[in-house]
Amino acid sequence: MLTAALASCTRPAALEVTDAWSRETVGQSANAAVFMTVRSRTADRLIGASTPLARKTDLMTMEGGSAAMGMKYLDSIDIPANATVRLNPAGLHVWLAGLNRPLQRGQTFALTLVFENAGERRVDVSIIGATSAPPSR
Q1: How far apart are CA 4 and CA 107, in angstroms?
Q2: Which of 15, 114, 131, 136 lies most in the core, judged by the most C-beta atoms within 10 Å?
Q3: What whole-number distance in Å separates Cα of residue 25 and Cα of residue 107?
Q4: Are 107 and 124 in contact (CB under 8 A)?
Q5: What's the rounded Cα separation, in Å, for the pair 96 and 62?
Q6: Calpha distance 115→99 (Å, rounded)
Q7: Residue 45 host element (H or E)
Q8: Are 89 and 35 contacting, i.e. CB atoms less than 8 angstroms apart?
Q9: Is 93:57 a contact under the CB 8 Å cutoff?
Q10: Residue 46: CB partners within 8 Å, gap ≥ 6?
Q11: Other Cβ atoms within 10 Å of 104 Cβ, number
Q12: Cα distances (Å, whole numbers) of residue 35 to 5, 46, 61, 108
């Protein structure tokens, strides 16, 4: 029985979110994007997000060619089993609209992610400088 308890302590979490970050806002910008890495042992789907910091949140992706990049709203983001999904500036991200305060480098804010199977997960989002290199793992 003790062996089973110890084994369950060393098993990785079913769903893990790491390296959540956003850039500081510049000027009067009332919008921002959040990026992160998600890994799950079982297939899941990110279906929503929320934060008290923004009036609205959306799941989005960048699409189009280099000359005509645009954002597309998504209903969900698939998280395949045992795969790493990276939300990054060139693709998938969580969009924050109607920020109620500027994002300042060195601070953090809470973001709640909603997964179809894993439920709600709260993550702390680090705010990096406007030209800083993103965190990586």
Answers
A1: 40
A2: 15
A3: 12
A4: no
A5: 15
A6: 23
A7: strand 44-50
A8: yes
A9: no
A10: 38, 59, 76, 77, 79, 113, 114, 115, 116
A11: 10
A12: 34, 13, 11, 13
Residue listed under structure tokens 């705010």:
127
Q: Which residue has the tokens 């009036």?
A: 55
Residues 17 and 22: their CA atoms lie apart, in Å, by: 14
Per-residue pLDDT tens over the stretch 90-134:
999 999 999 999 999 999 999 999 999 999 999 999 999 999 988
Instruction: At 74, list the tokens.
Output: 């998504």
Tell me the C-alpha distance between 22 and 65, whole Å: 24
Question: Taking CA 63 as the corner, what is the angle to CA 99 and CA 86, rounded to the nearest 5 degrees?
Answer: 70
Tokens (6 digits) for 30: 């009332």
136: which 2 tokens? 């990586």
Retrieve residue 75's tokens. 């209903």
Q: Which amino acid is at 6?
A: L
Alpha carbon distance 83, 16 (integer Å): 11
Using CB atoms within 10 A of its CB, is residue 91 exposed (0-12), middle (13-18) or buried (19+)?
middle
